[in-house]
Amino acid sequence: MRLLVSVRSAEEAAAALEGGADVIDAKEPGLGALGAVSPAVLLEIADCVPTGVPLSLALGDLGSPAAVRRAITQVALARRKAPIYLKLGFGQVDSPSEVARLLKSAVLAMGSSLPGGLLIAAAYADHTRAGALPPAVISSLAVEAGAAGVLLDTAVKDGRGLLEWLPRPALGQWISEVRGAGLLAALAGSLAIEVIPLVVSLRPDILGVRGAACDGGREGRVSPSRVRRLKARVATSEASLAI
User: Label partner for 16 (CA 20 to 30 A): which of 22, 94, 162, 230?
Assistant: First the structure.
């Protein structure tokens, strides 16, 4: 299981790497759950992340194929040894056919401007607040579109974590269905260090954090020591499952 840490700057990326993060995720938390960093900041982050470390970037919640294409063509990254994940959300898009169009546009745009990139469709546990489709629908559409994975997150960052929106059995079922379809399953959404053992027991492929990795919460700064503690908690939780 890989620990993804969301960072808003090259300095935070360096701190996350020092703490042992497995995936560096470029995201501007001040712009929402999937806030995109500027192209200049993305390049600064990418420059400080070794090419052998997976890089993830949030594109935002986009509502038109043109916006999707524009966001992806702005990603001017050189080829890397490790994967590049692009996270696309669908807040305020409650039509399955429209989400399917957006996913298709993303796949086509990535094929021409970012070969080798992997599309991650973002679903929200609090989808009614986000005006989005339920997670199971997003997962199904992601499979049909040829996405690489699905992220289950929370849209509104008000302190209510993922487990307050979906109980453990429902999360486990969702992960099983996503992985059974051959996609990566990632979990995020105000995950505190105290819930790491429970989340790890569900066996997602990727576990994403921001606030738990920062001094001062989500809007604070990534701390190497906090990332190190999170990484250790993931490792000990995985080890306990093997006993």
Answer: 162
Count of domains forming the chain: 1
What is the spatial distance between Cα 181 and Cα 167, in angstroms, rounded to a whole number?
A: 22
Give the separation between CA 105 and CA 71, rounded to whole angstroms.
Answer: 11
173-183 pLDDT per residue, tens: 999 999 999 99
88-100 exposure pattern, b = at least 16 Cβ within 10 A, e = fewer: bbbbebbeeeebe
* CATH value at residue 39: 3.20.20.380
Please, are residues 103 and 145 in contact by the beta-carbon 8 Å criterion? yes
Specify the DSSP element, H or E, that contains 240. Answer: helix 224-242
Average pLDDT, the chain: 96
State the catalytic residues. Answer: 27, 87
